[in-house]
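request received
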Amino acid sequence: MQFAESFRYDHRVKTRTVVLPALLVVAIAAGGAAWWWVDSRAPAGRATVVVTENAEAELVAAREAAEPGQALLVALRLKAKPGWHTYWRNPGDSGQPTTIEWKLPAAFSAGAIRWPVPRRLPIGPLANYGYEGEVLLASEIRVPAAATGQVKIAARARWLACNPQHCIPESGELSLALPAGRGGPSRWSSAFDAIELPRPVPGHWKLQARRDGGRVLLEVAGAGEKEFIFFPYEEGKVQHAGPQPLERTGPGVRLAIPVSQQSVGQFTRAAGILVAEGRRAFEIDIPITTMQR
Amino acid sequence: MKRLFALILFAALPALGATVGTPAPDFALENVAAGTVKLSQHRGKYVVLEWVNPECPYVRKHYGSANMQRLQKDYTAREVVWLSINSTRAGHPEHKAPVEMAAWMKRMNAAPSATLLDPKGDVGRSYGARTTPHMYIVDPKGVLVYAGAIDDKRSTDPEDVKSARNFVRAALDELLAGKAVRDASTAPYGCSVKY
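response:
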């Protein structure tokens, strides 16, 4: 191709292997816990770290071993270099959500990505929803009851890294090897605990949404929050960069969400997350009524 | 006075964008070849507006696979006017001077009716153009009849062009056959327009 010289796809991928010797030391010091001796033929907790032009990626597990019959949390640890970001499930006005294509041993299965709470990243008059710096995109891996020996969890991850100037598509072939058996928390477990995930709406809140011209008014009775931003799961519903003024009402608060001028499909449900101050986030999915006030 | 405040407030709001089914905002933009092109001078014909930025990997997908050029050739041959618009602001690292933009389009064997520059971003904002590519179709009466993506495969992989449903081709075929557009509003994908 004559224009190939101008393409910036040649993100030279370097990989390095990280062994976790500290764990082995702990295991030995603990006097040879049975699970470790059983699986000591193969090295434990071995992961490839893919380093691209704009990010670093690897698979990390919350525990040291894959316990048969249990679910293990495994995350894509994706760290964009300073000034760069990657994307949430709804990327906002532009961009692309990160994807993970799992390659698992027979009878293993993976759940969907548990998307951490994104940030609104303004770009001129537009906005993206995503993550600056490091993010852990965790999924639940179901380990079959019959799992034995060394388990290799692999994935092809694709992400778009952008800064306000440029966007570069990147990807990595990642793998993580760990023993089947019982194991304690890994050195990543505190990072898993720190993932900001949306939670269910508090029981004492009462939510209602109604269409009011170019806005959707979201009433949250029982809430006293000073700040809310609604992030919809779907594109083509709201103006991603638009201000969402919050008003106090008798029973709680009312958020005014500007509807997209280029709506895609019907905006009949407010489905997404409501992010309050302190990065607390709540998952909502309620019908939008067209009733007049 | 109140009215003035309202005007100032309105001007400070972010781009809202044109809506399908309403009149497409008119504009006059610099043609990289020479002169100025006005949208309204093409009244009576279908006009495709393509937001383009040669530095964007999504744009390169559609030019690298010749998908965009094929659309340009196929429909300008059928009396459709095709305007490619670059709204990258002057001073942005990805900004192209008229001669550079013209040279890139030539190197790509692109065949739009004209390539236009919008370095202040006013036209991009008036259409609510968010991505490159972001595609619009204006009907012979000047009404916006399509806004959205080029196709349904959000990726930078040129291979995906083969299996994608091309919304612009589908809409133009429907319009030229006198039918209504089935998917008149879709979610555009790509890099952000560099306002």
